[in-house]
Amino acid sequence: MQSPLRLTFRHVDRSPALEARVHDLIGRLEKFHDRITACHVVIEAPNARPGKGRPFDVSIELAIPGGFIHAHGTHGNANEGHADVYAALSDAFDSARRQLQNADPTH
């Protein structure tokens, strides 16, 4: 990647384990698609809703030659989010991988 990974936490405590997981997942994307030039990952926990816990939302913006990829960690009802931040991360990175595959049929 030409630019360093940008990682933003909103209403979520930054943790070394969470940061390491993001770096691992972006490393896997780079092995899958070596033309990623920039990446911004946002991990967010909106205000808690009564009886619903704090769902997590992960969004990823990747820059590749010729455009951008936008992916979100949503599952089922997009308004519910994920109760597990790691599930939201996996979901978002899976979506990014599928979009990269569709953007470049050689992969």
Automatic annotation (TrEMBL):
SUPFAM superfamilies: Ribosome binding protein Y (YfiA homologue)
Superkingdom of origin: Bacteria
Pfam families tied to this protein: Ribosomal_S30AE (PF02482)
InterPro entries hit by this protein: RHF-like (IPR036567), RHF/RaiA (IPR003489)
The protein's name: Ribosomal subunit interface protein
Source organism: Steroidobacter denitrificans
